[in-house]
Amino acid sequence: MTKQKIIDKYPDATGHFGVYGGRYVGETLIAALEELEEAYAKASVDPEFIFEFRNMLEHYAARPTPIDFAERLTKHIGGAKIYLKREDCAHTGAHKINNVVGQGLLAMRMGKKKLIAETGAGQHGVATATIAARFGMECEIFMGTEDIERQAPNVLRMKLLGARVIPVDSGTGTLKDAMNEAMRYWVGESADTYYVIGTVSGPHPYPEMVRNFQRIIGDEAREQILKYAGRLPDLLVAAVGGGSNAIGLFYPFMDDPCEMIAVEAAGDGLDTARHAASINGGSPGSLHGAMTYLLQDDNGQIHEAWSISAGLDYPGIGPEHALMHDIGRVKYASATDAQAVEAFSKLCKYEGIIPALESAHALAGAIEEAARRPKDEIILVCLSGRGDKDLENVKRYMDAHHE
Amino acid sequence: MTKQKIIDKYPDATGHFGVYGGRYVGETLIAALEELEEAYAKASVDPEFIFEFRNMLEHYAARPTPIDFAERLTKHIGGAKIYLKREDCAHTGAHKINNVVGQGLLAMRMGKKKLIAETGAGQHGVATATIAARFGMECEIFMGTEDIERQAPNVLRMKLLGARVIPVDSGTGTLKDAMNEAMRYWVGESADTYYVIGTVSGPHPYPEMVRNFQRIIGDEAREQILKYAGRLPDLLVAAVGGGSNAIGLFYPFMDDPCEMIAVEAAGDGLDTARHAASINGGSPGSLHGAMTYLLQDDNGQIHEAWSISAGLDYPGIGPEHALMHDIGRVKYASATDAQAVEAFSKLCKYEGIIPALESAHALAGAIEEAARRPKDEIILVCLSGRGDKDLENVKRYMDAHHE
Amino acid sequence: MNRIDTTFRNLAKEQKKALIGFISAGDPDYDTSLEILKTACTSGLDIIELGVPFSDPTCDGPVIQRASQRALKSGASLTSTIRLAADLRKVTETPIVVFSYYNPIFKYGLENLARDALKAGIDGLLVVDLPPEEAQPLSLALEETNIHIIRLAAPTTTSARLAKLVDGAGGFLYLISRLGVTGTGGLDFESIRSHAAQVRASCPLPVCLGFGISTGADARLLASCADGIIVGSAFEKIIEANLSHPGLPELVAELVEEFRDSLDSINSEPVGEGGSSGGLDKPGQ
Amino acid sequence: MNRIDTTFRNLAKEQKKALIGFISAGDPDYDTSLEILKTACTSGLDIIELGVPFSDPTCDGPVIQRASQRALKSGASLTSTIRLAADLRKVTETPIVVFSYYNPIFKYGLENLARDALKAGIDGLLVVDLPPEEAQPLSLALEETNIHIIRLAAPTTTSARLAKLVDGAGGFLYLISRLGVTGTGGLDFESIRSHAAQVRASCPLPVCLGFGISTGADARLLASCADGIIVGSAFEKIIEANLSHPGLPELVAELVEEFRDSLDSINSEPVGEGGSSGGLDKPGQ
Ligand SMILES: Cc1ncc(COP(=O)(O)O)c(C=O)c1O
Ligand SMILES: Cc1ncc(COP(=O)(O)O)c(C=O)c1O
């Protein structure tokens, strides 16, 4: 029995991953999305674009990022070997840069003068502002007023990088409202403005395009693990907010005999209202341009998400993940705030790496799996970013929980 | 006329760089330094040690760091081409990691159980705590009480990494006092404790050993610039505090036809009392184990140094630099706080890279040089670290100066 | 016959332009909202657009966003919107178009919606973020009803795409008058006229202009190039400014009358015959 | 003959142990410091160690660090220390050893120092962070004087190294009694005794024990295995605790007397003959 290949099968020509994905947007945006789709389709097969992208990743984003055997953590747990894909060492401190490099180059090709983006914790805002500075483009970042207060250092970063931060006080003044506002702005200004979406969500072609820009994570990791460990990993683990680092790592392994676990943020717990687990605690629906799993009530109103990790704090997930869940290719687990903070501490203490709280969710999942797997198995974890941005948050959490 | 080679000539067998360097310590430390010297001499030619060091640099420290052509900054200035050696992308965000990886491995070989280090801004403390965690060693970091207050995030980092931060309130409660205290502690505990000095200063063999651990910067950069630019740079520029990133970059080019400029921190200006320019504003003397240039008064009392950049805020400089100054191989320039902040802003705005304030001094020097050199010249700048740690400082400076 | 089609047929006969009013369902509360709707219908609205409040209205400007928020706070939902339509239907034959984002509809269930909307006397469904490419399930669900799917066209819509939009649509074409989200102002009358003329030339449905029309004067200036005009934020502004005003429905009615008068005062070309049967007589043809 | 050598010769004759006192020069101020020194000399100190305050005293514990800081605040320096020695010399023949870090000396100029120290009647120079490997310039500068360079040896000093230390040194060998910096306490008498015996066996100079000796009892317990004992932090503690006490010099003198009495009370082996000429009669030889 030959298994059907998953890679290259999705999305279909209309941007659907099974029933997910697609293009659920107001008519005014259709032309802009078609323009983008066409430009991306051309660029993605243009050797010059491919060269520029690779070149920027190497010299600017500091790729390849290494893989790193977490020997002491592995010993401490006493089970399967844990390897880390070190996206924390990429420029700006997370995998986010891969995507903005790609989209920034594309925006330039398309003759756009300005980049806009939404941001919650500020990570994607900083990444977009970064690339705008590098390319000499104007930049406006939409950010909820709540978040502007909570994430002052990233606001400062964006300003230093020359971006304007546009406060959004509609709705709950957080990430999804910022995304709403960015889309509204784009509707009016798409002629000279490029909208940089930060994860594998949004209307077609974003999920496909962002995945393809992020697959560098998995392409590198596959080559590296084969070189250093001599074989494929048994399990891949990544945290999933929108899902770009997870799909970036997983995608090149899709047709390999590797298990995959994506870890959602369970916040206070899946049995509470305070979590961000769209698959484990949500249901299908359409938001921000795509059909996918969402946190919503019975009336189809979107719930505010909650996680200690600002980067996972989004009420949706990329449509490709929705499909991977339905077809069972990827298992969607979850980790609570408490589990993430514990994994965070462990990586600090055993490996001298301060992970992003997002990545700490992946670690929590990996630690659980490692404990119940034999020592000769290999788990490859996407360490999607560094945790410098999270220090205050973790301290507050620890202080409140007397750790 | 064949020029005499500089490389491999210094230090001499007794650890002197001309009249500088040496071993100006209390008798009780002599045995510890001899033990270290011997251990390092053995390790440095042991293929296993060399492999371990390279391996850790690759997988853990994320080396090689790239070189990156700063195209927009170059255009903006309109002179020589500026290339950046991207130490900001190394694990923990600065070149400091190279050295602590080396010394950490050495400490393990020597059977030491505990690492100690002094820290001012906390960068070297974090790097040492990092490596202690990675190797499972105890760690105590000496830090002035003043600095503990000013650098709360780094204190938190060290604690998360499992290190104890020992407050030092003697003297002025800043970096040099922390170093004093670390030396005092080491005098009593050298049997099971390894003292990790963070720069090319201190008694022999530290300046030589740290240089050799840091020369990876220059070794990589030399290969990279030859590959990407096709030729050697005309000028190398680096900021100089203790001088480890500068000598790390310069050393492999010592016998090449390249100019070299090390940029000291001029704080409020060399004509004021508030600067940290040991060569441009100091005189020879002995401190912390070595003969070198120091900030001191007529009575040989050491001055407090001042710079907006905490990592340059030290009243001495590595002895090899003292020699390089005297023999004219390296030019010692300086940049004021204002010039550094301006260069900082420029790199943010033109390249989307937030540099460490230390590195901003190098950039200030490079920008000045680029402006007066033709477009076909190449300047290679050591971007020794990232500036996330400096955001608050820069903001405070800008607010105070209405920028 | 669908009430929308009847309305356009009648307006055509009277050589009048359609006045379509968007009202956020349940803003500020169910009862007031019902009163506003009733009064608006008797004051000269030809078609009601009943907005289903949504937590993330990405196609709307701040005025309708806030209206949506108020409605949500008062407990509004697609369910209550359908009930509102049914209650309104008891007292008026004015066509009711439910205006929604897709998610509340999807979550409600397309079959459920078709059944309940029909029962409530709803005449059309306008799903602002559901382009034709994604609309098949909804079309299928509505197949057995005579509820129209109303489509929007944008200034950036090509003529090729227009054909696609209109295919399977009914009632009228909602022609967005400018780039951007709902809200008042920002109109470039010259380009709207030329674009509207182009669209009408190839569109088998009545073409109504909306987005940004905030005064009687705007309406008068644009009515001649369309079959009707759509006003939304202007009504919501009045509501927002008079939330606890006891005579709120009358205030909205006054604005409806103003628009009505403006539209009726123009010396317009005759509008074509409405109806999904298509084949309209167009000026310039 | 150097006063230090004379002192050890006389002590040997009297079968007494040397009591060497470290006092930070200029703490708390010049005049008080001079009074303390004078009184200490008349109360039984055999040798004065006059500490040059330094901003970065890496070999000193907190007590002497603070003494150094107070002295610096009162304006003390190597210059004023030399003046203090000269003033003291006017009233006493007690040997004076200047105890310093290298930097103040280096900055002062080695030639200048040799000249001025000689003029002031200084007998020895102990540079705590100047191992023999770095000492050549100082040795050269002092060559024409009869000022001794005093060396320290540590518990970790090997016998090979001891020979190097003593080469070119004079006066006495300062044997550090424990690992660590100056300060009181932390003594392991057993190991000190055995190490001291070893050192004395091969050292041509009188061997005096210092670091950590804080009470008469300590002194008594250690005197038998050395030619003298050195007390520093214990004096500085008294000074620190009585900074504005009018009878401060007397308080220090009392402590000097206590140490003196303790030393004199012991039934010790005869000390060897002092002097840079070497060749001492050692117990166990
Ligand atoms: C470090 C890091 N990891 C993960 C995420 C989650 O995004 P995604 O699921 O798209 O990888 C973020 C988002 O900000 C992030 O900053
Ligand atoms: C980023 C960075 N650059 C430079 C320095 C200065 O040290 P050195 O002169 O040893 O390179 C520091 C010290 O903390 C640093 O953190």
What does this structure look like?
- Chain A has 403 residues and is α/β, with parallel strands linked by helices.
- Chain A has two domains: 17-57 and 96-210, Rossmann fold, CATH 3.40.50.1100; 63-94 and 213-402, Rossmann fold (3-Layer(aba) Sandwich), CATH 3.40.50.1100.
- In chain A, 44% of the residues lie in helices and 18% in strands.
- Chain A has a six-stranded mixed beta sheet with strand order 3-4-14-9-10-13, with helices on both faces. A four-stranded antiparallel beta sheet of chain A has the order 1-2-12-11. In chain A, strands 7-6-5-8 form a four-stranded parallel beta sheet, sandwiched between helices.
- In chain A, helix 3 (71-77) crosses helix 14 (337-351), helix 4 crosses helix 5 and helix 5 (123-135) runs parallel beside helix 7.
- Chain A is globular.
- Chain C has 285 residues and is α/β, with parallel strands linked by helices.
- Chain C has a single domain (3-264), classed as Aldolase class I (TIM Barrel).
- Chain C contains twelve helices and eight strands.
- Chain C has an eight-stranded parallel barrel, surrounded by ten helices.
- In chain C, helix 7 (136-142) links the parallel strand 4 (124-127) and strand 5 (148-153).
- In chain C, helix 2 packs across helix 4, helix 2 (30-42) packs parallel to helix 12 and helix 3 (62-73) crosses helix 11.
- In chain C, 58% of the residues are buried.
- Mean pLDDT of chain C is 92; it is low at 268-285.
- The interface between A and B is large, with 43 and 43 residues.
- The site of one pyridoxal-5'-phosphate has 21 residues of chain B, from helix 5, helix 11 and helix 15.
- The site of one pyridoxal-5'-phosphate has 21 residues of chain A, from helix 5, helix 11 and helix 15.
